[in-house]
């Protein structure tokens, strides 16, 4: 009964920005979407921001991204992770893309991030058509949406108008969850960024795709959560644990799928895996055991389409964290995503 009530509650808060499943060759264009009567966000983001100044933007992003993912499908999941790291550190401002000594990108926590070349390639093409108009932040946000669609996930409308940060500090990368936090710590982190309990559970579902290195899960496989036990805590299914220990025994540089069942498909199987004690990361498995999050997990297991729709809404909320926009904000439109404009040569 609780699960049914929660499912109805989740459905009631689904954002109108979700447009259901999108086919990889049928992305809605600016002209095909209704223009809202008022700006949808207080910080001056809008769905029609580039309608006149760069109407071909979404087609450029989609075409380029499709080319990259065709060559390496793992890049789609990498872009979701890159976008999350950017937004969770200091807000969605492309600070993760700045490539200089002491930047977030050079931090230890950022060493496994990928997808920078994809954004650079898209940016070059966009600059040819719309010079100094489109921010790197908006490109990363839209590319993340398109990457999700290419893996079978939902399409959602992206409001535009973000600017790029001129600052990036290595210490800010430490603010991104590492996969070893408690649910309480995670919830506090999410709430501090304007996200809620549902966003925590739903955005964790991005682990339905992607991989992590064996080195990143050594502690989980052999030392447990607090390092005092030889058994994983929270627990792992015995057969799954045996597989992981065999795979990761000798090569910490090998990679393991975050979703052991359907690793290349964007679906709700991630949550069903938790029910079977097959959550690869400690923080993922704890979503099923913590009384605050387990009812949401059960609802998503029971209604797979609920995850697809709510993921759209939570991604829009994520992409709206502390954005730089408007005439009086500190920010710029970088012409090269790797450097602030004053550094360009």
Automatic annotation (TrEMBL):
Entry EC no(s): 1.11.1.7
Family from the record: Belongs to the peroxidase family. Classical plant (class III) peroxidase subfamily.
Ranges for domain Plant heme peroxidase family profile: 44-341
Function: Removal of H(2)O(2), oxidation of toxic reductants, biosynthesis and degradation of lignin, suberization, auxin catabolism, response to environmental stresses such as wounding, pathogen attack and oxidative stress. These functions might be dependent on each isozyme/isoform in each plant tissue.
Record-level Gene Ontology MF annotations: heme binding; lactoperoxidase activity; metal ion binding; peroxidase activity
Alphabetical list of InterPro entries matching this protein: Haem_peroxidase, Haem_peroxidase_sf, Peroxidase_pln, Peroxidases_AS, Peroxidases_heam-ligand_BS, Secretory_peroxidase
Protein name (Swiss-Prot/TrEMBL): Peroxidase
Lineage per the UniProt record: Eukaryota, Viridiplantae, Streptophyta, Embryophyta, Tracheophyta
Chain sites annotated for binding Ca(2+) 2: 208, 259, 262, 267
Major location category of this protein: secreted
